[in-house]
Amino acid sequence: NAGVTQTPKFRILKIGQSMTLQCTQDMNHNYMYWYRQDPGMGLKLIYYSVGAGITDKGEVPNGYNVSRSTTEDFPLRLELAAPSQTSVYFCASSRTDFEAFFGQGTRLTVV
Amino acid sequence: QQQVKQSPQSLIVQKGGISIINCAYENTAFDYFPWYQQFPGKGPALLIAIRPDVSEKKEGRFTISFNKSAKQFSLHIMDSQPGDSATYFCAAYNTDKLIFGTGTRLQVFP
Prior knowledge:
The complex is a heterodimer of chains A (111) and B (110). Helix content of chain A is 0%, strand content 52%. Chain A has strands at 4-7, 10-13, 19-25, 31-38, 42-51, 54-57, 64-66, 76-78, 87-94, 101-102, 106-110. In chain A, 37% of the residues are buried. In chain B, the strands form 2 sheets. In chain B, strands 2, 4, 5, 9, 10 and 11 form a 6-stranded mixed beta sheet that branches. A 5-stranded antiparallel beta sheet of chain B has the order 1-3-8-7-6, with no helix packed on it.
């Protein structure tokens, strides 16, 4: 049972480039989340989804987009990458409001 | 207000001591309060959680104390061990959103 899988694990982007962070879960969870983690700032919610076809903004959505076409997948799109988007990104899923399972994270550097 | 305030930012405890981490919230609509533990290079993992209808929950060496009137909750780690060294996050849940505190880096020295 793989749980929540994120790819890639590391990525370096140039300013202005775009990329998609992939997230897939095999637990049939309805809820999925994207967070970014910056030192001393905790985890900030970027976007979340309560089911296929439904997405909503979190605390820090600017500069990001998401889609949820299937229960399993919740990709995060960065358009026109900026240095301020340098961070560690975590995807998580949960059945309801109970235990959220996190992926291993994607460390992104924008230079 | 969706904020969850956490303190201290870092904590150093000797082996066998008690580690205490505090959190406070403003939004009374929060209805689920989990604590997550994160080791370096890993994603956070659920440690223990509480609902606001109880004042305390204990699981092994870990206890959550919850004060609904003060809108505060805390994590107590009894008999702290070097293996407990990690970053701890409190969180609060409301209407499909799980909001995290800023984290506490705990170091337990032998």
